Amino acid sequence: MQVEKTQEFRPKIVAFCCNWCSYAGADLAGSSRLAYPADVKIIRVPCSCRVNPMFILRAFQRGADGVILCGCHPGDCHYTTGNYYARRRMTLLFSMLDYLGVENGRTRVEWVSAAEGVKFSTTMNEFVAKIHSLGENVRLGDLRCKKD
Amino acid sequence: MQRIGVFVCHCGTNIAATVDVARVVEAAAKEPGVVHAEDYQYMCSEAGQLKIREAIKEKNLTGIVVCSCSPRMHENTFRQAAERAGINPYMVEIANIREHCSWIHKDIEEATEKAVILARAAIAKVTLNAPLQSGTSRVVKRALVIGGGIAGIQTALDIADAGYEVDIVEKTPSIGGRMSQLDKTFPTLDCSACILTPKMVEAAAHDKITIYTYSEVEKVSGFVGDFQVDIRKKARSVDMSKCTGCGVCQEKCPSKKTPNEFNRGLNTRSAIYTPFAQAIPNVPVIDRENCIKFKTGKCGVCSKVCQAGAIDYEQKDEIVTQNYGAIVVATGFDTIKLDKFDEYSYSTSPDVITSLELERIMNAAGPTKGHLERMSDHKPPKSMVFIQCVGSRCADKRGKSYCSKICCMYTAKHAMLIRDKYPDVEVTVFYIDVRTPGKNFDEFYRRAVEEYGVNYIKGQVGKVAEKGGKLLVQGVDLIDNKRILMETDMVVLATAIEPNPDVRKIATMLTASIDTNNFLTESHAKLRPVESPTAGIFLSGVCQGPKDIPETVAQAGAAAVKVVGLLAKDHLVTNPCTAKSDELLCNGCSSCEKVCPYGAISYEEKEVNDHGIRETRRVAVVNSALCQGCGACTVACPSGAMDLQGFSNRQILAEVDAICR
Amino acid sequence: MHRTEQEQAELLKEISGVDTKKCMKCGKCSASCPAYEEMDIRPHQFVSYVQNGDVKALLKSKSIWKCLSCFACVERCPRDVKPAKLIEAVRLMVIRERGGNYLTPDEVPELLDEELPQQLLASAFRKYSK
Amino acid sequence: MQERLIERAKELLSDGTVVRVLGWKQGDLGYNPEPAYFNSPEELKDFVYDGFCGANLSKYMIAAGKMEGNTLVFLKPCDTYSFNQLIKEHRVNREKTYIIGVGCKGTLDIDKIKNAGIKGIESISQDGDTLKIQTIYGEKEFPFNDALLERCTVCKGKTHQVYDELIGAEEGEEAGPAGNRFEMVEKLEAMTPEERFAFWQNELSKCIRCNACRNVCPACSCLKCVFDSNKFDSAQKANVDTFEEQMFHVIRAFHVAGRCTDCGECSRVCPQGIPLHLLNRKFIKDINEFYGPYQAGEDTDSRAPLTDYTFEDVEPGIVTERGGKH
């Protein structure tokens, strides 16, 4: 799936990838030439459990339109249990953002193993398409959303 | 303020074809802190590294950003280059502009823009980097091999011959694995047992090798150099020190109806059994599920007939705990279940068999004593049909997406052996492709066709049906473009192989990564094929991917060399990217301790000086020798006291800010 | 509307949802096909013909009226190619070019006889009522 | 009741069991008592315990625990959850604390009375189910239950979780109004995202960043808040549109998720009347639904939901699956 390019809107998308599975999966997507839009920028973290909700909120506050977290499949964490904690943290964070009225499609967690270059690429294509359909992020920049 | 140097690699045209390297250099040079920026054809080359070293010296650089391939490729290369020029290796950051940029984007404008942003993120991060010092950890001079097939045996022998202790853990009652079930081996047609049993004996006799059969790995903790492993020795119900292996118990055992796993269920065995005659150890086990004594409390025949008094119904499982410097996974394979392939009538007709079952039928110690016969009526077949790629190369959920690699060759072997021993039997092989890369492999296959008259048909079989004691095969010949309808006596399915289903459990314990097909992932598909990405875990045999015996033995040796290389070290240099707690910010709440998978965090009552206030506080202390740097604690910590060196909160936020700028 | 053969091939892929590139030419579809002997162009060849843009021959083929739409080929294809869908697409293309000479449900009872299996009725209806 | 508490406090001070008392002291108005230390029997003359003693004293015990000698603290049933949670997090010193669990019939919200048009209040006393309010315009009456703080209308527990002795605990045992504490959360969940966004935009825009919520919250007890340290580059005090300004409440809610006992102090003290407890309750509700019922402060040794996991936990995708069309 290829995302249609529109001149007006180039989303900013931050992808946190764990070093052992998803970052390697992204590398595999690269060496297999499995394209996805350049809007996705990857930040390498040792484990999905390293991702503090503050990082995600910071990205949104600084103008990101979507944030995706990728880690090893549950059960396959390099550090045994990291992604289980990440799963709970992200579930609760995403639910809270949804509760605040922020579009829940702007956040996503996907488990991508080192062997899943194809999955990495499809996931990113889907996610970018989703962000395109949601348009620019206006709600999450300022959660306090101060009215003048 | 850091003095940062940025080095942008062309990687030949790998990067430069899609990323305007000059523009990346130009943009990077404008970033705060950057005092040097240049590009080069191949940064990883000696000349490229020299450029980095020279720039460090000439411009007094304190931090380095290399925009190149994945850090998983060359981070170490550039760290070493930095170190040689006198700066701390952890002052290097990589912007991955190849795998994550030039290789996936086509538009030069887009790719260049992204490369600039990735460079900025790396510059922003390196600005906050601090020199880190590695510690050391011990290396336990002992290796564990999980799986006692040919892969495990060979790995263990090679490690032991280099002078290190090795333990083999084998789930079944004997070592030997799949190879012990084979009759002959391609392409030289050696008798499998004749070449395997000497290795089994050698392993058993080796003073550096300890074999735990009928045992499983139960728990693994620790890390490279110092794994702690619990091995469950299942109760054998036979005292290994007393048993003489006379075999009387097996003869007299009244429970003889258990399907014989070794013969793939083609015949039955007693409840007390050794899987095969050459089993090592030659000590039977009691299969408690099928033993009358264990089921009803009555019987005890084996105990009565055992002159050595070796039978011990009270025996319990035993847990052995041992430390190892390295672990080799050699868990092998099984054939897939064929329940989703109704069209071949495998589950309804006893004369439709898998190739591994045929191995047992053709083996002199097998269910038919080596006579080729139909399992339905024990009559010799007059014609046989072999079907290739059953469950291999499947895009659907019924089978496996990969080529099982060994089937073309063993099918040629079977066809040839049958034609050789029973020239009257007509042999037809339905194939999609015949894949025979390997020394003397294609010659072998051609001999089957040309010398032995095996009829190879390019095409597949759509249906096998039982009809009047015969098997009706409906297939197609794609070359002649005609339907084939033939009667035959036996059908042999070249069934796909899959990793031993237990491997997923083991991979989880070892935190070794595994792919969707349950094959263990290697650290690098080409350059580090016998190492798992998890340090200290090595791969041997089919657990890593389909392979035949010569390849397995070669890989087993390679894994052994890697293990020996590790065990030969006096100590290991540890990853300095560990968690660190700021005692002035620590609340002592224990959240971090709860999420640490390594028990690396403890608490101390410590006197702190918080801006003039001296008081005793409960603070978290990280044992950097145990910490592996996952960062779970950093997020559990509400105050931000716990941080991860090399991936600090501020560093990651700086990357976020740079990307979202 | 006139289409080139290549365009027709693309249309066939679109209608059927079949990706002909997935075929590994094993022939299992033809091996499974109960109408194989009746066909001038065989199921596996449909995939290859469309892949090579050779649609004219397919439109003239009598195979499209012989396919029972039993989907044995779809069921057994190891690569998930779905040759029957491709055959159905060719059939559809022929019918559409011919115009509205459809079988109406009212005409069906007259064509029935006692021996006719239900499956044939269902597949015939599927075939002719598109 | 107040007299019984003073009597007992005097005894404990006199016999040396404790060296100070942490309780509530009469404020400048008839309805604003404040937390206070009493260091001698004489000082206890200012001690007060009435329906306006809503303040949860648990958090003060972090500091009290570091002082010389033992401290007597009065805790209402809901306050004991907070205290327990602080024991679990090693923040308070149980050994140096003498807890008298006091009965509670619910605490009052002066704004509810004022909003009903009662002005010029001088003092308030309770007579059964009725509040007698002396105002400069004469005596007025107000139904007790109508003046309760929101949190007391959905009281989560009438029994003390931790104490050394109880005084008047039986008083609170008769059931007060027992509402569904998730009612408002559910209402918000049922709204469209746009409506929810509008709701929170309206509420959070009122925030003046006075930090009262942070200061009163027993879970928000970090020695140094992340927003005051340089660990996250989050302080940025000089900027107008800072990360801190914009994300404060959601981060604060996340930091106390799984630790918040739902004591409701944040909403009670907010000068702008922002229903901050609705953020915390959302986390509590989600935790209960996703990971099984959990009440922070009920015990001192269980794993908090965010430092725990099961293999079968729901995936974050549940948020999208569960609804909230966007």
Task: Provide structural commentary.
The complex is a heterotetramer of chains A (148), B (661), C (130) and D (326). With 148 residues, chain A is an alpha/beta fold. Chain A has four helices and four strands; from the N terminus they run E-H-E-H-E-H-E-H. Chain A has a four-stranded parallel sheet, with helices on both faces. The mean pLDDT of chain A is 89. With 661 residues, chain B is of the alpha/beta class. In chain B, a hairpin with an 8-residue loop joins strand 13 and strand 14. With 130 residues, chain C is mainly α. Chain C is 55% helix and 0% strand. The longest helix of chain C is centred in the C-terminal third of the chain and has 16 residues, at 83-98. The interface between A and B is large, with 52 and 53 residues.
List the topology elements.
The complex is a heterotetramer of chains A (148), B (661), C (130) and D (326).
Chain A: E1 13-18, H1 22-31, E2 40-45, H2 53-61, E3 66-71, H3 82-99, E4 107-111, H4 117-134
Chain B: E1 4-9, H1 21-29, E2 34-40, H2 46-59, E3 63-68, H3 71-84, E4 92-96, H4 98-102, H5 108-127, E5 136-138, E6 142-146, H6 150-161, E7 165-169, E8 184-185, E9 190-191, H7 192-205, E10 209-212, E11 215-223, E12 226-233, H8 248-252, E13 258-259, E14 268-269, E15 272-273, E16 285-286, H9 292-296, H10 301-305, E17 318-324, E18 326-329, E19 333-335, E20 352-354, H11 355-362, E21 383-390, H12 407-421, E22 426-431, H13 441-450, E23 455-458, E24 461-467, E25 470-477, E26 482-488, E27 490-495, E28 497-499, H14 503-510, E29 537-539, H15 549-567, E30 571-573, E31 579-581, H16 591-595, E32 601-610, E33 613-622, H17 632-636, E34 642-644, H18 649-660
Chain C: H1 5-16, H2 28-32, H3 43-51, H4 55-60, H5 63-66, H6 72-76, H7 83-98, H8 108-111, H9 118-128
Helix pairs in contact in C: 1-7, 3-7
Q: What would a concise description of this structure say?
A:
The complex is a heterotetramer of chains A (148), B (661), C (130) and D (326). Chain A is α/β, with parallel strands linked by helices and 148 residues long.
Quick one: CATH class of the largest domain in chain B?
Alpha Beta
N- and C-termini, Cα separation of chain D: 55 Å
Care to count the β-strands of chain D? 8
Low-confidence runs of chain D: none
Please write the string of helix (H) and strand (E) elements of chain D: HEEHEHEHEEEHEHHHHHHH
Q: What's the total number of strands of chain B?
A: 34
Tell me what the CATH architecture of the largest domain in chain B is: 3-Layer(bba) Sandwich
> How is the main sheet of chain D built?
5 strands, mixed
Biggest contact: A-B, 52 and 53 residues
The tally of structural domains of chain D comes to: 3
Looking at the chains present, what oligomeric state does this protein adopt?
Answer: heterotetramer
Strand line-up across the major sheet of chain D: 2-1-3-4-8
**Rg over C-alpha atoms of chain B, rounded to the nearest angstrom:** 31 Å
Separate helix tally of chain B: 18
